Amino acid sequence: MSSDRAPLRFLVVDDDQDMRDVLGEMVGQLGHFVDKACDGVEAVEALGAESYDFMLLDLTMPRMSGEDVLRWMSEHREWAVGLRVIVVSGRSGVHTLDAEGLGVQAVLQKPFRAQQLRDLVG
Fold first, then answer.
1. pLDDT at 1
2. For residues 65-77, average pLDDT
3. How many Cα atoms within 13 Å fall on the side-chain side of residue 48?
């Protein structure tokens, strides 16, 4: 269930529609607002249009990968002020990513449980 605090704004970025829908549903059940992007290009466009509290970001996507989004954000910090990034990935070796250096708060390895996401969001 949702907490007593104000709803947060999430951007869910994944090229797999089922995963976007599942993550969006999980976030919605926590009582937060959700926007979705199907790749890094749409994510960057969304960051330019709205302010978000969290971004749930897949790494392996067409057109612009999650790693490319993270690098873009490090070069355009004004577009992501206060944004907390959680990488959601099933890719092995994700821990070799310079996550902290690229502003990643946490890595959520697929498959995961809703409670893990709840714990990360707080």
1. 45
2. 89
3. 9
